[in-house]
Every structure is written in C-alpha cells, then in structure tokens.
Amino acid sequence: MKALYIASTGMSAQERNVEVISNNIANMRTPGFKRQRAEFEDLLYQQISRAGSQTSDQGTLVPAGLEIGSGVRTVATPRVMSQGSVNVTERELDVAIRGEGFFMVDLPDGRTAYTRDGSFERNQDGTLVNSSGFAISGGITIPGDANSVSISPDGTVEAFIGTGGVPTQLGQLQLARFVNKSGLESMGDNLFLETPASGPAQVGIPNADGNGNLLQSYLEMANVNSVTEIADLIAAQRAYEMNARVISGADQMMQATSQLR
C-alpha cells in the first residue's frame, strides 16, 4: 500500500524540520547566528489519467486528471539573514554590524570566511582575531602599549600609543556583501564560506555603498525568536503525529484485507 511509504516521507521531512528548529533554539545566545527554516517540495506523481487527454471520438477531454503523489521531501534549509538584536557589552573589541555586510576572516588554508560575530580579541602578537583565533582581514595589529582602542562607524581602528596625545590609526575594518546571502555555506565557528550560489564578495568600507555601520562595544545576537520557534516545533510535532496515524490507518486496512474469507 503506497500510503505507508507516502506517510513515511512526511515523517522523515518533519523529523528534519524538528532538527532545524532544535538547532535554532540551541543557538539562541550565539552572537551573529542566523536562524534556518526548512523548505519542502512534493515528490513525483503517478499519472493515472492525464488532464486534457481525449476520452472519445468526439474529442471530449478529461477536465481534471487523476494523479497520485509520492510524498514530500526537505529541499532546502535557507538562513533568514535578518538583523539580530544589538546588545551592549562594554568591551572595546566587541563590534556589531548594524545593516548589511559581513566581517572577513583569514583562514589558515588561505581562504576567506565571513561572519556577523564581532566578538574580537587580541592574540599573543596583538593581531586582531576572532574567538577561534583566526585573523581578521586587514592585518590590524594593536601594540601592547596601546590604550583605549576606538573603532569608528566606518571601520577606522585607532588607539593612543603609550603617552602620546594623538591617536594612531591602526587599520580599517572592511565589510563584504553578497547578492544571495542565503547561498553562503555554513562551516561552523560562526563562519560562512562563499559559494557559486552566493555570488562573489563585494568588499567595501562600512557606512558606505550600502554597507552597514559599526557599533563599538556592542554585539549582534542571534535573530532567533523563541515564541516563533516553539510554535513551529508544535506544528512540526502535530504533522509528524498525523503522518504516523496515516501509517497506522493503512496498516489496519491491510490487516482487514488479510482477514477476509
């Protein structure tokens, strides 16, 4: 009975949906995290009677065909790239992006990764790095005797060196934009990679050419709404239960058929 297999695809799809929702909820406090949603599509149809086919010599046509579907599958889990809430942290190396753009991170293998997580640190050499120790693109190094580092809305990094009364410019933070942000590949560690679907990175300075501006001593939090996620979780659970009931009903029908005398 095909109903067994059709309902099983529904259960599998809702199981994947719950996995996506659980990952969103798990990352509610992850800086710069962007929630995902599961998207579904129906499977192939068995054409028993095709709509528009001729049914008589007089040219009578079938007004509506007879099609039996094969179920559903999860086709994509795109990220919702909306702005997350911006919270004050009072750390001078925390930076939030308000608007479009991603920070660029230099990976050890030579690739460039992208992130919305602006929780930066200094490594043993004074180089500005992310929380995983990867250098922020631009090669910004903060001397050990630097005081009161400031990061302006346009990404200019300055600091007072030693006892000097004039700030020294240390570098410029840049942002990257993409035509299709949802096409970026997640690699963990709050990092994304460019893909053919995302298009090439469009690099520019903050607060110009459509890029967002930077806020020092702030962090962008996850754009996960707990109420929305719980509502989606309940809906996914009920859909899973209904598919399970279909399997139970199909099993009872097969049992009744096997007991016929």
From TrEMBL:
Alphabetized UniProt keyword annotations: Bacterial flagellum, Cell projection, Cilium, Flagellum
CC annotations in GO: bacterial-type flagellum basal body, distal rod
Keyword Mitochondrion: no
Annotated compartments: Bacterial flagellum basal body
Coiled-coil boundaries: none
One BP term from GO: bacterial-type flagellum-dependent swarming motility
SUPFAM superfamilies membership: Flagellar hook protein flgE (SSF117143)
Flagellar hook protein FlgE/F/G-like D1 domain ranges (all copies): 96-159
A Pfam family reported for this protein in Swiss-Prot or TrEMBL: Flg_bbr_C
Keyword Secreted belongs to the record: no
Highest taxon, organism lineage: Bacteria
Domain annotation Flagellar basal body rod protein N-terminal: ranges: 4-34
Domain Flagellar basal-body/hook protein C-terminal: 216-260
Family: Belongs to the flagella basal body rod proteins family.
Subunit structure of this chain's protein: The basal body constitutes a major portion of the flagellar organelle and consists of four rings (L,P,S, and M) mounted on a central rod. The rod consists of about 26 subunits of FlgG in the distal portion, and FlgB, FlgC and FlgF are thought to build up the proximal portion of the rod with about 6 subunits each.
Protein name: Flagellar basal-body rod protein FlgG
Gene from which the chain derives: flgG
